[in-house]
Write a structure and sequence with these properties.
The chain folds into three domains: 334 residues, ABC transporter type 1, transmembrane domain (ABC transporter transmembrane region fold, Up-down Bundle); 37 residues, no CATH class; 234 residues, 3-Layer(aba) Sandwich (Rossmann fold). Helices cover 60% and strands 13% of the residues. The chain has 20 helices and 16 strands. The protein is elongated, with a radius of gyration of 36 Å.
Amino acid sequence: MKPKGQFQKGTLKRLFRMLFSFYPVALPAVIVCIILSSAVSAMPAIFTQNIIAVLEQNAGAGWAVIGPQVIRFTMILAGLYLVSLILSFTYTRAMAILSQGALKKMRERLFGHMQSLPVQYFDTHERGDIMSHYTNDIDTLRQLISQSLPQLLASGVMVFTLFSIMLYYSVWMALVVLFGVSFLLLAVKKIGGNSAKYFQRQQVSIGKTEGFIEEMMAGQKVIKVFCHEEEAKADFDTVNDELFHDSEQANTFANILPPIIMNIGNLIYVLVAMAGGAFLLSHATNLSISGLAFSISIVVPFLNMTRQFSGNINQVSQQLNAVIMGLAGASRMFAMLDEAQEADEGSVTLVNVTEADGVLTERAERTGIWAWKQPLADGSVRYTRLCGDVRLQDVDFGYESDKTVLHNISLFAEPGQKVAFVGATGAGKTTITNLLNRFYDIADGKIRYDGININKIKKSDLRRAIGMVLQDTNLFTGTVMENIRYGRLDATNEECISAAKLAGADDFITRLPQGYDTPLTGNGTNLSQGQRQLIAIARAAVADPPVMILDEATSSIDTRTEAIVQRGMDALMKDRTVFVIAHRLSTVQNSDVIMVLESGRIIERGSHAHLIAEGGKYYQLYTGAFELE
């Protein structure tokens, strides 16, 4: 972590740049209003001095002499107060609107950036902690932008204006104030620094706590099945105690700072009064820009300005905790925005084509025939029909650079072939399918799709050409129809229904209360696990890709439902290249080739009959002589 001062300076500067990019005209206008309002608010000291000077110079004179001047100064002062009120009302209203608009834009930018992050980011960060960026971290910026920053600017302008007026009237008195304020600033630095440190820790602890709670909510059934409630409470208490300690320390320092500053301000007030009295009694020579001699008309306004001076610094200290929390939240938000986006150097795209006499012609409308559009060095374009030929050659990969997971993997799947991966958990089956989608990039070797290196294909187009049904089903808030259409957003209702029939999902969907219009919430908790899986299969079917990856697609379906689904799956897999990951070996017997993996290596390959005849590891798995897990 950067040093505290550097962290705050850099974060605040970046936050301002972002705010100015959101409101390049409105925000400067608001800042001008704040500056003018604060500067005007410091003017009463001048008129107080003028009024007292009039009374001193005309001592003994009647109201007829003094009155007009006093009334004139009073009216000007009232006018300035009215201007300050109007400016304050204007910028307060504007900041309420701008702050909410800025938070909206920040959430949009954060979510937009999140969509561009690689899968690895989500594999290595807790979901609750990521969610905390949108809730807690962004919310800390609300008070920072709408109240704290305007207050800091207003107080800063006020302090600067007041000190300038002090120097104008008396350098000696200004130095007395500055001497007292140095102790005040020392207290702010010392106590505020400790507060800043713990507020930053608090933001991190909040993210950890929310991540833990999210994890416990997702696994609540497992907790209850294994009677882990007390252990979960103990683990939560540990996380919660850490948050409590950081919050307690942060708020302790933040709460003791204002009364300390207030009392130091009172001492400064006494010090200025004593210094002013001493200067008057000793008839000291005044050093000032105004050229005025020491008098009551200077000492009395100085006392008022001293009170304003320390009062503004006290207001700054009261905003300190909100500023620190806001900067800590902004720092976490920027840390996520600084995460490297998913790299995509691919130039090959997927386009619709028509074919006549072996010549492919690109079309804007959907034709049902796809081709890879590959730009060449001479400026021409080559079209390669999308067939579903996938080949891996000498592929090595590790999630961490020093830990290789896959070793020298070579295989091919011709169009229409069904390739199955079997092996114990951790053998590398799912890892291979992650590489086909380029969720991760290989360390060495080549992966080619229709003869094209997949590194040259744009990731969005590559993934459009590969359908995937995962073991863990994710359904989104919306109707059943909308969840199926998620596979292809331009699919018609008829195409979605056909896909559901193909997957064997139409029967139970039509028996739902509102059929295909039945709303789903909470990841489809109102459906059984098997029904959710059937919808996921229908979603992949409507995408109609030439390559399909089935990662334990029938693992959550009972034997009777599996027979129904298998017929649909067979139709779905017809004329497609299919990669199947299965622990239930009965589902892979009809595969064209079966790859047996162990510790990231392919140790056997061949058809079911061939591998049984060999009597190796697959034979042991199939006959139960060796447990798959």
